[in-house]
Structures are given as C-alpha cells and as structure tokens.
Amino acid sequence: MQNNTVALAASLVVTIAVFLSVSTVATAQTAPEDAKDYRTAVMTSLRGHVGAASMHVRGIVEDNGFLAVHAEGLARGAQELKHLFPVGSNVGDSEALPIIWEEPEEFQKVMENAEKATAAFSEAVAGGDKATIGRAFRDVGAACRGCHDRFRVDQD
Amino acid sequence: MLLRYALILLSRTAAHRPLLQRFFAIAAVWSLMAFAPVHADDVVERGEYLIHAGGCVTCHTGEGDDAQPFAGGRALESPFGTFYSPNITPDKRTGIGSWSDEDFVRAFWEGVRPDGDHYFPAFPYTAYTGASRDDLLAMKAYLFSLEPVIKENRDHDLPLMMSSRRSAGLWKSRYFDAGRFEPDPSKPDQWNRGAYLVRHLGHCGECHTPRSRFGALRDSHELQGNPDGPEGEKVPSITADPKEGIGDWSLGDIEYFLDIGMLPDGDFAGSAMSSVIEDNTSHLTRDDRLAIATYLKSLH
Q1: Pairing with B65, which of A138, B190, B195, B218 sits 20 to 30 Å away (CA)?
Q2: What does the alpha-carbon distance between residue A11 and residue B24 come to, in Å, rounded to a whole number?
C-alpha cells in the first residue's frame, strides 16, 4: 500500500515536471515575426563588425587593439547563423529566399563557409600579419557574397 | 633580352657613374625600350588583364561549377529573346580558332562576324567599339593561348521577327555608331582611363544605363540605373547623384567595393554584380579601380 503511494507520488512528480518543461518550451518558442526581427538584428550587428573591421584592414583607422574584438564578434556571430532561420520565419519583409528551406544542405554549406572564413579572419588578426589579415578579410567577403548571391533577396 | 641586360647594367653601375654618363646610360635604355619587340608572353599577360577589364568570362562561360571558361553557352535573357553566348576558345571549328586579327578587331569595332553577318547587340560591341586595336589584339593573344574547347554553339531563342540577322543590321543602322575612344584633353589622365574602362571595355552601361523601347542605351541617362535590367532585375544608378546614385561614397569606397564587394555600410552585394567583382574588377589594379571611381564620381 505504502509502495503504491510512493509510486503514485513519484509518477505525479514526473508528470508535473514533464508538463512544466513542455509548457516552458511552449512559452520559449519564438513567434515567426520575432525570429525574423532577431535575424535582421544579428545580421545588422555582423554588418557593423564587417564595416568597422574593414576600416582597420584598409588602414583608414589605426588598430587600437579593437580589431580583434570585431573579428571575434564576426566569428562568434557566424556561429549563430545556423540558428537564425527556423522554419516559418520567412515572414513580413524578410529578405530570406524560400530556397533556404528548400535546399537545406546547400544552405548549410554556405553557413559553414561563413563560420570557417570568420574563424580564419579572427586567427589572422591574432597573428598580426597584415597581408594574411587582408586575404582572410577578402575570404570573409567572399563567404558573405556567396550566400547573399543565392539565398537573399536582391538589393536595389 | 637586350633591354633586360641594359637595365641590369644600368642598375649595377648607376651609383658609381658621373651624372653625364648616367644620362647617356638612361638615354640608351630609353631608345632600346622604344625599339624592343614586345615579348609574346607580355602580350598574353596584358591580354589576360584586359579580358578581366572587358568582363568576357562572365558571359562566355556556361552555368554550373563544371562549365569550361570561355566555352560559351550562358543564357542571356532579354526582353528581345534569349541569347546564348558563343564559344570563344581557340577551337578552329566550334570556337574562334580560325579567326584572323582583322576578324577579331572587326567583331569588336563594327559588330560584324567573320562571314559578314551582323551580331545582335547582346554582344556589347556598342561599347567595345571604343577599344584600341592594341588592347583587342592582346585580348586575342590571350584567348588563343588557352586550350581549345570543342563545344558547339547553341542557337539563340528569339521571336520570329528577330530571328534573322538582318534585323540586327537594321538595328545597327539606327542605333550603332562605330568609333574609337577619344581622350578628353581637358580632363586628367585618371578620368580618361576610367572613362575608357567604364564606357568601353567594362561596358558598365549595358546593365546600369536605361534602354529605349528598341533596346538602345539612352546615353543622356548614362549609368542612371535600369528599372528593367538583365533577368528582370532592377539595376541601381551609379552616378554621383547623392540620393539615387553613389554620390555619398568616397573614391576609396568605390574602389574597395569593386575589389571585394563590400558596400560602405559593411554589407556585401549579391546578385549579378557579385560575378562582375569576382571575375573582373577584383583582378584589376587598384589604380584602374580608382580610375573607374573617378569617372563615376564625375557623372551627375
């Protein structure tokens, strides 16, 4: 009898726990419009890092030690890219093309390119050799273009 | 060879010579330079550079990763039908391997095929007509240094009224003026170089200048953007107009964009311009990209 009570109590706890975790997931699920806005915000931050890094790379501003921060921001941001395109987030004024979800393997490749190129750029900045930094930054550009070419709405 | 020897001699001894002797040595080198035959490899190398400036590979290479460069087959969709670019590798039967220098120059200057028929202006001879003979023959030398690729040309897919090349002749008689580029002596060299690259070799107007109903470029609206560009894309203005064009870009911004494709705000261009940068403008010297920028900044 006592065993039964313990078992009942345990299963109740488990049930409540499962219910709670499910409801937590449910409330944490992002609305499509928010997912799109978040993607735009992250992309804008990456663009900012690229713009700032380019001014170092082109020698327009002196590197005061913060090029590494922008390079790191790019590399870390690029790791997030693959989480930014949940199914159903192609809403409103999204610039993402449907081909992203139609050809997920192809899209995966360009995401990986971006990760690799930005990681290499961050490494090059840590190494300090100007020519290597220049080449690595060019590769970052090629990775960005490679994706925008196929997977983003053409810009005017 | 002689020239190289003279240069080495000059560089080794110059520091120890009195001024007058040095002057004669320099004069000797100058005279050698004037008569030195241009080495064939140098012409091929110059031709390769000019082929990039001319944007040839983008149209003359088919789609897909395994497409062979310059072997043609790319579909160019236009409001007048679909054109397929021809094979320009030196294969004698399917390419241009049997063309003479005159054939090659005439194609660019006059828009005429070796057999005398007219080209449709999908081949932008309207722009290339300004190219110099030297530049064109260097481009030919480069193309002829490549491996021939056997690949048959595909017929254009055109509406009935356009299917005869006579229609191309008719079009040319109204809209095509043959003529070489004349530098404007009142403008700096850099501007003139830019004008030559933008208007003629680079044929930027083919996409960036709006067209009339019959497909002729509206020169009075040079590079002011084309609402109905290739493959239905809207192509932006690249004049110095601060609102419509790129007037708020610095010379350096334009140069850098043509080098790696970055817009001044850190974004990267996709679309057709991405191939133009990849295949062409990124291969040019910084000076030439700055010359292009200088010319664009002068347009209003």
Answers
A1: A138
A2: 104
Between chains, do A149 and B271 touch, taking CB under 8 Å as contact?
yes
Give residue A13's domain range.
1-30
CATH level 2 (architecture), domain B189-297: Orthogonal Bundle (1.10)
Q: Find the closest chain B residue to A43 by CA distance.
A: B267
The total domain count for chain A is 2
* Pair A68, A47: CB distance under 8 Å: no
ipTM of the complex: 0.72
How wide is the angle at C-alpha A25 spanned by C-alphas A16 and A104, nearest 5°?
145
* A122 shares a domain with A63: yes
A115 and A85 belong to one structural domain: yes
Residues A58 and A129 in one domain: yes
Tell me the β-bridge partners of B83: B76
For residue A145, give how far its alpha carbon lies from the nearest alpha carbon of chain B (Å): 5
Rg value, chain A, Cα: 22
A85 in a domain, yes or no?
Answer: yes
pLDDT digits (tens, 9 = 90+) for B35-91: 455 577 899 999 999 999 999 999 999 988 889 999 999 999 888 889 999 999 999
If asked whether residues A110 and A139 sit together in one domain, one would say: yes
Residues A35 and A22 in one domain: no
pLDDT tens string A17-69: 544 444 443 345 789 999 999 999 999 999 999 999 999 999 899 988 999 99
Residue of chain B whose Cα is closest to the Cα of A149: B270
- Give the separation between CA A137 and CA B52, rounded to whole angstroms: 22
Residue in B233, B266, B269 nearest the CB of A50: B266
Give the nearest chain B residue to A52 (CA atoms): B266
Give the H/E segment covering residue B38: none
| Residue to test with chain B: of A55, A97, A138, A154, most B Cβ within 10 A | A154
- Going by pLDDT thresholds of 50, 70 and 90, the confidence category of residue B237 is very high
Would you say A10 and A16 are in contact if contact means Cβ atoms under 8 Å apart? no
What are the residues facing B77 on neighbouring strands? B82
Kindly indicate the confidence band of residue B14, based on its pLDDT and cuts at 50, 70 and 90.
Answer: very low
Confirm if B285 and A68 have CB atoms less than 8 A apart: no
The size of chain B, in residues, is 300
Residues A78 and A118 sit within 8 Å (Cβ to Cβ): yes
Query: Is the same domain home to A77 and A120?
Result: yes
- For residue A90, tell me if it sits in a domain: yes
Report how many Cβ contacts below 8 Å link chain A to chain B: 60
| Burial annotation B20-35 (CB, 10 A radius, 16+ → b, else e) | eeeeebeeebeeeeee
